[in-house]
Design brief:
This protein is α+β, with helices and mostly antiparallel strands. Strands 14-11-10-23-24-25 form a six-stranded mixed beta sheet, with helices on one face. A six-stranded mixed beta sheet has the order 15-16-17-20-22-21. 49% of the residues are buried.
Length: 490
């Protein structure tokens, strides 16, 4: 039985991967093309899923510019017809839909449905992480088990991105998402929700994400006149609980649970960084080489996507993106009674090293997610953009609005933690067309709303990145342009 419609991945000038998923291994899996060809697929079983999932992949080559109809067939069961095409010609302008942080949120299906209806045809979907909630749970990728019933909400990743969702928004209407990734390729980045595991680094895995998408942890591709660079910039996410009393603690980003202090196997180790991006690390060196590559230098635009961005107004900007510094606490008898973690802003590789590297290289756009809000910043010709107010928000924290992030008390080093605004010191840009306003009528430099959805398109034929916003409390939500700005071409 099909678990999904097909998914297009990794096109080049002559071909593209067609991937789909079934509950059974089966024996006869092919892509049937409108030109009469039948391309056999290879089958693998995903190794970490909570139920049986089989992946079928066929590389369709020999493609010419323009679309070609296709469908997939597994043991006699056929999908509907869709369209595939090779990668856009190098140097050509492209239209890239940017979205992230879906996580089966109530308004994500509405967001994608409105986006597809508003922006029109796109060439690819760029997604800076958090496609799902739990990467080893099949339902998060493919939707509820059939036993869930015909009236179950369906708002998981592939149903939404393939137009097969059924998700009720705040206005009481059900939305289906849009048939996107059957017809255009997906370029994802790893978010914290693509990493399974709850304790220290040894418990973590990105196997399910990689087996589904075929993506490397970091990679670069050319899409028309764009060089897209994808980084693995993610920490273990933990809660905010903080307690100066070592005997009254729960595990969080700042401390180990009191009950676990004596058991290293139970230590969470704070918000540790999954893959280093610090100078000298393999990812850093790869990035340095990529920024100097002929493919990157030939592109008119360079877009870098990563899940956790260096700049922002969200709550997840505290603590700083830095390795946890462990502090052991003892009682008067010398017994270990507490473990807490501090994070030094001076050790933040994103602000201290990555931003200068990208800006010096002339990167025009850094797209991120993670905080479930819309905000953007400028440093010279480099724009730092987060467009993750997809279906909900976790808030924006600014001095102007007197809204404050959590800051741990002493004995933590309070000066390391930014209570409001951008810890990197940049000024958030007020949307240029239709910003939201505060209670006093002042325009807000962000969207942090559970009632609004925001989606965005980068058109590299013009260099313009446009964001639209829609109010989901309206019976008939009508997207309007929120913001529009132009990248400087190289």
């Amino acid at each position: 039985m099909f678990l999904s419609d097909p998914l297009l991945l990794w096109p080049d000038a002559h071909g593209v991967d067609v991937v789909w998923f079934t509950t059974e291994a089966g024996a006869r899996h092919v892509v049937e093309l409108d030109d009469g060809r039948r391309i056999p697929a290879t089958t693998t079983r995903l190794t970490r899923m909570d139920r049986a999932v089989h992946r079928h992949r066929a590389r369709v080559g020999g493609l010419q510019a323009g679309g070609l109809g296709y469908r997939v067939i597994s043991d006699g069961q056929a999908s509907p017809h869709f369209t595939l095409r090779p990668a856009p010609g190098k140097g050509s302008g492209v239209r890239l839909l940017i979205t992230s942080d879906h996580q089966a949120k109530p308004h994500t299906a509405a967001n994608m449905e409105l986006a597809a209806a508003t922006v029109g045809p796109v060439d690819a979907v760029i997604m800076p992480g958090d496609l799902v909630n739990s990467p080893d749970r099949a339902a998060d990728w493919f939707g509820p088990h059939p036993s869930a019933g015909d009236d179950a909400e369906i708002r998981q990743f592939l149903p939404i991105m393939q137009g097969r969702a059924r998700s009720t928004a705040a206005n009481g209407r059900a939305y289906r998402g849009a048939p996107l990734v059957q017809n255009v390729p997906l370029y994802p980045a790893i978010g914290n929700h693509e990493v399974s595991g709850e304790l220290g680094p040894s418990s973590c895995s990105i196997d399910s994400y990689r087996q589904i998408t075929g993506a490397r942890p970091w990679y670069a591709v050319t899409i028309g006149n764009v060089r897209l660079i994808t980084l693995f910039v993610v920490r273990m996410w933990r809660g905010f609980d903080v307690n100066a009393d070592p005997r009254a603690r729960q595990r969080s980003r700042y401390q180990e649970a009191s009950a676990d202090v004596g058991d290293p196997q139970r230590h969470g180790r704070g918000c540790f960084i999954h893959e280093s991006i610090a100078p000298g690390s393999p990812q850093w060196q790869w990035l340095v080489d990529e920024l100097d590559s002929p493919q990157r230098r030939a592109a008119r635009y360079t877009v870098v996507q990563m899940h956790e961005g260096p700049h922002g107004l969200g709550e997840n900007l505290t603590p700083p993106f830095a390795d946890p510094q462990r502090h052991d606490e003892y009682d008067d008898t010398g017994e270990l009674i507490g473990i807490r973690y501090d994070y030094d802003q001076r050790d933040n590789p994103l602000l201290n090293h990555l931003c200068p590297l990208l800006e010096e290289a002339g990167v025009q756009l850094v797209a991120s997610g993670h905080s479930h809000l819309w905000n953007r910043f400028c440093s010279g010709d480099t724009h730092y953009f987060e467009g993750s107010n997809t279906g909900n928000s976790y808030g924006a924290y600014t001095t102007a609005q007197q809204v404050w992030r959590h800051v741990p008390p002493e004995p933590w080093q309070i000066g390391n933690y930014s209570a409001a605004d951008d810890p990197g010191g940049l000024t958030p840009q007020v949307p240029t067309v239709h910003p939201l306003h505060d209670a006093h009528g002042a325009p807000l430099p962000y969207v942090a709303s559970d009632d609004h959805v925001v989606f965005q398109l980068l058109d590299t034929g013009t260099g313009v990145l446009t964001s639209w916003i829609a109010d989901m409390t309206q019976e008939e939500p009508t997207p309007v342009v929120l913001d529009r700005f132009t990248l400087t071409s190289s």
